[in-house]
């Protein structure tokens, strides 16, 4: 709001300083007739909107009233003159200016060239570290830049493209926008591929991208010939200068090219032309024009499909494109290649000849400079960072994913440091930015790239990491495009992919996994072999008792198990015997039934029988089972389960199975007894018998469980007191009606299975209480009642009151004696 007020104040001040504009002529409304009601003004858009039709009478009156006002307003508008728009205003700003790429950051750069019989290698060194590596082999030479005379093999209107046969294994792909001819110049939009090309038509094309994976080469009809300083486009028009150069240098080179511009074709000035004279640029352009004439003559006499022009070899091509004034030197270890590079530079850049050095030391050039190690590192999936973090590269068909991880990096370890988790993550991401860009250049990764930085909550930190990535990418000569970082820390970017990188040249698809990077595990192969073995046993002929089966050695070891326990279980279920033989050098899924028949015919001969107990000295750990111990018995290998800790000792073992060349045994006395605190298993607990549920009292009234029977000592007072209480009652009196039974909550005071008192049970059933079988009359002792006096006088301690055990109905609760109910004198 403060900015708005300041702006209004400035506008008012500016208005007061300038002369007031001429007031437009006043528009007078005609006076309303007497007695006429004023028309109600409605909001636009309400009750019908702008195009709502009015009644005829109202429409006539409104037209008469508004006609003079409209004429006066139109006259005032005609007198106003529109203000002239300044040049270079808003419309001119809408034109998108191509971004200018800043010059490469300053660094100490060197060019290394190594040539072998079967491979040519070129490396770019920046500040003593390999930054870019280019590999080329005779059988996989790059075709980018080659010119072919091809034949249109197929036109696909649905894809707006055509496939052109150029003499390679796969046809080239020609998109409709890449079809450029002088007669079609200026009208590329809206063209149909079927109107431009026909099947069987001969066309001259140039490869702009090598064949990769399942895709063929990318082609174009707009042929360009690159030179040292300029690029000549025979079918193009206009002039262009590299945007990496400064403005003054660009203007100087543009003036030079205008003077020597050819009558036909276009010219693009390269970054290497910085500081070049007009003679050097003109010499380079004349050479390219002469080369084009030779290509046209060769194409006229060639029969399609044919290679008309082949691009230079890798060392000369890199020297032409990269070896500029910002390189300190170029080191070459091959005589012929050295002469070619020097000869080329003498014609194009004589001042650069002295920077080319011949390597003559005994140590190989790439080994001495560490380039060999850098090339091998491109095959690794993980790249470590100096602070402890690391990067992980995953290559997919659609894109490449780079994952950033902190690893051992935990930030500052100082107690006085105020760094937080966000600061640690940002520092790790900023360190990863430099290594990510370095690996992109070293591995020559192209296409779509997704970088998974560690999540940052602060938008400023995300912007910092994004800016650092874009600044570091300025070192890369390859075209890149970066999308802003997402809240999840993902950065999407693209990098131009022209040729294959070191990883694609140095590696091939795995014959076992087919390039997926995963194979079937040994455990899975053993399970599959178990199913096949049981299937063979199920389909065996009558009389067949045993089989001899060949498996991969690791799979056979898993199927046999420790002490042949797993094999014994399989034989028990299949009711057949199996003698497994491990084979080396075969796939994991190898399965072959070598023989079948009677057990005596299939079983191998051995110096020991199955089930025998022998004493054996263990000498080494098992080959396929690290927990087993191995020994020898008359040339027979004996594998003892769980005996790895007893190497060097003699043990007593029991032979469980004898196979071809190996016997499997178990210890008669285990090395260590089972600990008391062994874990409880759910299976063992489930197999234990459970106690039957207690029967209810209603189902068995006369039966009393042993657990609920009270001790004899507790029953004696009850048995002695109840007859006495009955004796004191008059004989002629009828027993009083029992009080109604108090209803308690289920589960309280003893629960559903609580025993009732005998007296209450008898009354409830309508029969008198039965006397016990043997009545005992209790005679009170002479000192009865003296306990209270003694306690009052303090001569004896007060007897501790006995409390109920449990809560109201516990299992051992003592019942109140019947005599206690009838107090003396009642």
Model description:
Helices cover 29% and strands 20% of the residues. The protein has 826 residues and is of the alpha+beta class. Among the domains are: 109-142 and 311-373, 2-Layer Sandwich (Nucleotidyltransferase, domain 5); 378-412 and 419-500; 508-603, Ribonuclease E, catalytic domain (Hypothetical Protein Ychn, Chain: A), CATH 3.40.1260; 604-670, OB fold (Dihydrolipoamide Acetyltransferase, E2P) (Beta Barrel). The strands form six sheets. Strands 16-17-18-19-21-20 form a six-stranded mixed sheet, covered by helices on one side. The radius of gyration is 51 Å and the shape is elongated. Residues 1-39, 81-96, 705-735 and 787-794 have low confidence and may be disordered.
Q: Identify the overall geometry.
A: elongated
From the alpha-carbon coordinates, what is the Rg to the nearest angstrom? 51 Å
Structural class comes to alpha+beta
The profile of the biggest β sheet is:
6 strands, mixed
Portion in strands = 15-25%
Please give the number of β-strands: 30
- Percent helix range: 25-40%
Strand order of the largest sheet: 16-17-18-19-21-20
Total helical segments: 21
Amino-to-carboxy terminus distance: 100 Å
| Average pLDDT over all residues | 79
Unreliable runs, pLDDT <50, ≥5 residues? 1-39, 81-96, 705-735, 787-794
Quaternary: single chain
List the helices and strands and how they pair.
Blueprint: H1 2-17, H2 56-79, H3 90-94, E1 109-115, E2 120-126, E3 129-136, E4 147-156, E5 161-165, E6 172-175, H4 193-196, E7 202-209, E8 218-220, E9 225-226, E10 230-233, E11 239-241, H5 247-260, E12 266-269, H6 278-300, E13 306-309, H7 314-322, E14 327-332, H8 335-348, E15 356-358, H9 365-368, H10 371-377, E16 382-384, E17 390-395, E18 399-405, H11 421-443, E19 447-452, H12 459-472, E20 480-482, E21 490-495, H13 502-506, H14 522-538, E22 546-552, H15 553-560, H16 565-574, E23 577-583, E24 591-597, H17 599-602, E25 613-617, E26 620-621, E27 629-633, E28 636-640, E29 650-658, E30 662-667, H18 682-687, H19 712-728, H20 758-764, H21 786-793
Parallel strand pairs: 1-14, 6-8, 11-12, 14-15, 18-19, 22-23, 28-30
Antiparallel strand pairs: 1-2, 2-3, 4-5, 4-7, 4-13, 5-6, 7-8, 9-10, 10-12, 16-17, 17-18, 19-21, 20-21, 22-24, 25-29, 26-27, 27-28, 29-30
């Amino acid at each position: 709001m403060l900015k708005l007020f300041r702006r209004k104040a400035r506008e008012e001040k500016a208005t007061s300083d300038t002369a007031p504009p001429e007031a437009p002529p006043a528009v007078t409304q005609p006076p309303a007739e007497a007695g006429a009601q004023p028309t109600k003004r409605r909001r636009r858009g309400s009750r019908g909107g702008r195009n709502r039709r009015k009644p005829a009478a109202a429409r006539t009156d409104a037209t008469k009233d508004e006609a003079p006002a409209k004429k006066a307003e139109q006259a005032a508008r005609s007198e106003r003159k529109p203000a002239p728009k300044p040049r270079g205003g808003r419309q001119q700003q809408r034109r998108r200016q191509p971004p200018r790429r800043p010059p490469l950051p300053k660094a100490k750069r060197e060019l290394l060239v190594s040539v072998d019989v079967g491979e040519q290698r070129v490396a770019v060194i920046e500040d003593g570290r390999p930054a870019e590596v280019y590999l080329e082999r005779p059988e996989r030479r790059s075709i980018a830049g080659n010119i072919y005379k091809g034949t249109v093999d197929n036109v696909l209107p649905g894809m707006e493209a055509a496939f052109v046969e150029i003499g390679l294994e796969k046809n080239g792909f020609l998109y409709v926008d890449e079809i450029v001819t002088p007669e079609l110049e200026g009208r590329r939009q809206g063209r149909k591929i079927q109107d431009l090309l026909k099947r069987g038509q001969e066309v001259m094309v140039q490869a702009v991208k090598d064949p990769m994976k399942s895709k063929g080469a990318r082609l174009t009809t707009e042929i360009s010939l690159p030179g040292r300083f300029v690029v000549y486009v025979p079918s193009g028009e206009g002039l262009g200068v590299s945007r990496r150069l400064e403005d003054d240098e660009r203007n100087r080179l543009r003036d030079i090219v205008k003077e020597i511009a050819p009558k036909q074709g276009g010219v693009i000035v390269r970054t290497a032309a910085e500081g070049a004279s007009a003679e050097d640029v003109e010499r380079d352009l004349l050479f390219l024009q002469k080369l084009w004439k030779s290509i046209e003559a060769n194409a006229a006499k060639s029969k399609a499909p044919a290679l008309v022009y082949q691009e230079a070899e890798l060392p000369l091509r890199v020297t032409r494109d990269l070896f500029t004034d910002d390189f300190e030197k170029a080191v070459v270890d091959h005589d012929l290649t050295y002469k070619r590079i020097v000869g080329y530079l003498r014609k194009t850049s004589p001042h650069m000849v002295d920077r080319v050095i011949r390597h003559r030391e005994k140590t190989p050039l790439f080994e001495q400079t560490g380039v060999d190690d850098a090339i091998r590192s491109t095959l690794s999936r993980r790249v470590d960072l100096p602070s402890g973090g690391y990067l992980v590269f995953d290559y997919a068909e659609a894109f490449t994913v780079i994952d950033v991880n902190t690893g051992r990096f935990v930030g500052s370890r100082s107690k006085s440091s105020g760094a937080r988790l966000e600061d640690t993550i940002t520092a790790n991401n900023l360190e990863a930015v430099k290594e990510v860009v370095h690996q992109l250049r070293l591995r020559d990764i192209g296409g779509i790239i997704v970088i998974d930085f560690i999540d940052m909550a602060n938008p400023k930190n995300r912007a910092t990491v994004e800016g650092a990535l874009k600044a570091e990418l300025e070192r890369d000569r390859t075209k890149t495009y970066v999308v802003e970082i997402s809240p999840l820390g993902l950065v999407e970017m693209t990098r131009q992919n022209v040729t294959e990188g070191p990883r694609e040249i140095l590696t091939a698809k795995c014959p076992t996994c087919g390039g997926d990077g995963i194979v079937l595990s040994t455990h899975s192969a053993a399970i599959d072999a178990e199913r096949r073995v049981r299937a063979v046993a199920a389909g065996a002929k009558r009389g067949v008792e045993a089989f001899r089966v060949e498996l991969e050695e690791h799979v056979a070891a898993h199927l046999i198990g420790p002490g042949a326990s797993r094999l014994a279980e399989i034989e028990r279920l299949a009711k057949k015997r199996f003698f497994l033989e491990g084979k080396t050098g075969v796939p994991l899924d190898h399965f072959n039934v070598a023989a079948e028949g009677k057990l005596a015919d299939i079983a191998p001969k051995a110096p020991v029988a199955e089930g025998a107990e022998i004493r054996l000295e263990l000498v080494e750990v098992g080959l396929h089972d690290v927990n087993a111990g191995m020994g020898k018995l008359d040339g027979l290998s004996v594998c003892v389960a769980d005996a790895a800790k007893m190497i060097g000792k003699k043990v007593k073992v029991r032979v469980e199975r004898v196979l071809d060349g190996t016997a499997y045994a178990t210890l008669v006395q285990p090395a260590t007894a089972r600990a008391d605190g062994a874990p409880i298993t759910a299976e063992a607990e489930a197999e234990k018998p459970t106690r039957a549920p207690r029967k209810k009292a209603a189902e068995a009234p006369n039966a009393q469980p042993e657990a609920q029977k009270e001790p004899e000592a507790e029953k004696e007072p009850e048995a002695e007191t109840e007859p006495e209480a009955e004796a004191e009652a008059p004989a002629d009196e009828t027993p009083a009606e029992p009080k109604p039974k108090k209803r308690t909550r289920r589960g309280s005071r003893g629960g559903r299975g609580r025993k009732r008192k005998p007296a209450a049970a008898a009354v409830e059933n309508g029969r008198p209480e039965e006397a016990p079988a043997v009545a005992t009359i209790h005679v009170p002792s002479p000192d009865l009642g003296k306990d209270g006096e003694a306690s009052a006088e303090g001569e004896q301690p007060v007897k501790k009151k006995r409390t109920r055990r449990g809560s109201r109905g516990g299992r051992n609760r003592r019942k109140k004696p019947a005599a206690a109910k009838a107090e003396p004198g009642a």
